[in-house]
Design a protein that fits this description.
Blueprint (H helix, E strand, L loop, with lengths): L14 H8 L2 H7 L2 H8 L4 H28 L3 H27 L2 H5 L5 H14 L15 H29 L12 H8 L1 H17 L5 H23 L20 E7 L10 H12 L18 H26 L10 H25 L3 E4 H10 L6 H10 L5 E6 L5 H9 L7 E3 L2 E5 L2 E7 L5 H13 L6 E8 L5 H6 L2 E5 L3 H9 L3 E4 H14 L12 E5 L2 H8 L3
Helix pairs in contact: 2-11, 3-21, 4-5, 4-7, 4-8, 5-10, 7-8, 7-11, 8-9, 8-10, 8-11, 12-13, 13-14, 15-17
InterPro entries: HAD-like_sf (IPR036412), HAD_sf (IPR023214), Haem_Oase-like_multi-hlx (IPR016084), Thiaminase-2/PQQC (IPR004305), Thiamine_Salvage_TenA (IPR050967)
Protein name: Thiaminase-2/PQQC domain-containing protein
GO biological process, one term: thiamine metabolic process
Length: 564
């Protein structure tokens, strides 16, 4: 019996699971491709599916060769049997494809030329089976059984991402079959979502784990690289499917450079950042404040609170703000719950929150905690701020896309617009339009006074409308607003597309009370695709619909607007 036979399962390296978790982000990219969205909605044209099936046949033939090569490379008897079974399963699936093809014009489907994206993956897999892998010896030198077993693991590492991805997609799309008795692609989705297909994937992953148990850290890194490359190539394969129909994703797909304008608005605190800008400004004030009594300060300095006193004052202000904010939200929700979306009542309720925000700002100004902050310290703090993952990349991609007419606006409560501008300029985003409050400076030191521009939800909504009113009338606007708190609700709802990133509890509570619906973005897109395919209405996206779309990352926003 070969060496791998008696290795306890708990001692095996679970490289398959590790790779999937590490590169799962690519699976979300696949979910938002036009092909998958149209498939999920049931609106995918049959010609596109025929092309997909034809290309998949090339994949399966390459898989059969891959399993055959892996079987020859391993000296473990059980592994040989297992890999042989995998190859037989591939051959069965090829026969199933032939059965499906017979229902169509078989000759027409079989004669479809191989897609360049298909060739990229099949060439990659065949190169892997022959040992042409960056970081390892040439295949001819893999003479010993031990070295050949490594190659078997590498081959599986290049194949498993594809089937694991399809198992993931099947489960994600299964929800769209609920209540649907006539979904045209039910069999396909059911197949990939089935327990049988999941078991097939797990068997492959189990063999990868067992064949990898003796590999070094460097050799496991090679498997990770192969896994990642396979995921990228599979994503390219899905993107390459010819789609001769209108798709709601990405938004940029239907953007006409001469006729359309994309106007993107977003909040700053907690939407782009992980922390509140007010907390950052307070920390700058505390750190830079004098530690000793004011008699030790120079006569030409701005008289400031001691650091300890400032910290205590700030903590009191923060505590009071939090308590009164929650009280304000609770008071807003004492009214009768709306049976359907009621923008007017919501607007009226948010006037209470606006009054509260203005009072809170006045308390901060009168406290003097913002007095004496150096403009250069603020800019340095901004430059060191870390944006949420994917935010900078998305904004950079928008700006650099020459096929988009796009305006980008930041609408923020932040007390100091210089902090925001510095945060974005450090990432090369100094072209953004920032609408926020501003500190008043004298000789680069803040006076504690604020130029009040955007203090509250009503101010945000007014700024939103003013910006759109100032846009020229030569193009049609499509507006997107990204936010996360109750203060963003009016703008989110006025926008054609309101996207809520990790919505706060207060936003959900207030929204639900006034009839706002919160729908995860991907299911919302699939539903819009159905409407789009049915030709209902001139536009799939309209403001004041009462529907907001939730996401958990900027990556989803990027995929929705710009694609992969």
């Amino acid at each position: 019996m070969a060496a791998l036979k008696n290795i306890p399962i708990e001692e095996t390296v679970e490289i398959a699971r590790k790779c999937w978790l590490k590169f799962k982000k690519e699976s979300v990219f696949a979910l938002y491709t036009p092909f998958i969205v149209c498939l999920a909605s049931g609106t995918l044209k049959i010609e596109t599916l025929q092309h997909f099936i034809a290309q998949d046949c090339y994949y399966l033939k390459a898989f059969a060769k891959g399993y055959e090569a892996a079987e020859k490379c391993t000296d473990d008897d059980d592994a040989k049997v297992g890999l042989s079974e995998m190859r037989k399963n591939v051959i069965k699936e090829l026969k199933m494809h032939d059965t499906v093809i017979q229902e169509w014009d078989a000759d027409m489907v079989k004669q479809r030329p191989v897609n360049p994206a298909t060739v990229k993956y099949t060439d990659f897999l065949l190169a892997t089976t022959s040992g042409k892998i960056e970081g390892i010896k040439a295949a001819a030198t893999l003479a010993t059984p031990f070295e050949k077993t490594k190659l078997a693991a590498y081959i599986l590492g290049a194949m498993i991402p594809c089937i694991r991805l399809y198992a993931y997609l099947g489960k994600e799309l299964l929800v769209f079959l609920e209540g649907e008795t006539t979904h045209p692609y039910k069999k396909i989705i059911d197949n990939y979502a089935s327990e049988g297909f999941e078991e097939l994937v797990l068997q492959n992953e189990d063999w990868l784990d067992k064949l990898s148990v003796t590999l070094t850290g460097e050799e496991l890194d090679i498997i990770e690289k192969l896994y990642q490359q396979a995921m990228k190539l599979e994503l390219g394969f899905l993107l390459a499917q010819p789609l001769n129909q209108k798709s709601v994703v990405p938004i940029s797909r239907e953007h006409n450079l001469s006729d359309d304008r994309l106007v993107i608005f977003f909040n700053f605190d907690l939407t782009c950042m992980f922390v509140s800008s007010s907390a950052i400004l307070a920390e700058i004030a505390i750190i830079s404040a004098p530690k000793k009594s004011d008699e030790d300060q120079r006569e030409d300095q701005v008289v400031r609170m001691l650091s300890a006193d400032l910290r205590s004052t700030w903590e009191d202000l923060s505590k009071q703000y939090t308590e009164e904010y929650e009280q304000c939200i609770d008071t807003m929700l004492l009214t009768e719950k709306a049976e359907s979306f009621d923008y007017e009542r919501l607007h009226k309720a948010l006037e209470q929150l606006s009054d509260f925000e203005k009072r809170a700002n006045m308390r901060v100004i009168e406290s003097g905690v913002l007095k004496g902050l150096n403009l250069e310290d603020i800019k340095r703090a901004g430059e060191q701020m870390i944006l949420q993952d994917g935010c900078n990349n998305f904004l950079q991609s928008i700006i650099q896309n020459e096929q988009l007419n796009a305006d980008i606006h930041v609408l923020s409560y932040c007390w100091c617009g210089d902090l925001i501008r510095s945060a974005f300029s450090s990432g090369g985003l100094d072209v953004l339009n920032v609408h926020a409050n501003e500190f008043i400076f004298e000789e680069n030191l803040s006076t504690a006074e604020i130029i009040k521009k955007v203090e509250c939800p009503i101010d945000k909504a007014q700024a939103f409308r003013k910006i759109l009113n100032n846009c020229s009338n030569d193009k049609k606007n499509l507006t997107v607003h990204v936010g996360d708190t109750a203060s963003d609700l009016l703008c989110l709802l006025q926008a054609d597309i309101g996207i809520v990133l990790n919505p706060s509890s207060s936003l959900r509570r207030v929204g639900n009370h006034f009839g706002v619906s919160f729908i995860p973005l991907f299911p919302g897109i699939v539903e819009k695709q159905k409407i789009c395919a049915a030709g209902e209405g001139s536009s799939c996206w309209n403001g004041l619909s009462g529907v907001l779309y939730t996401v958990s990352s900027w990556a989803e926003i990027h995929l929705f607007i710009l694609g992969s």
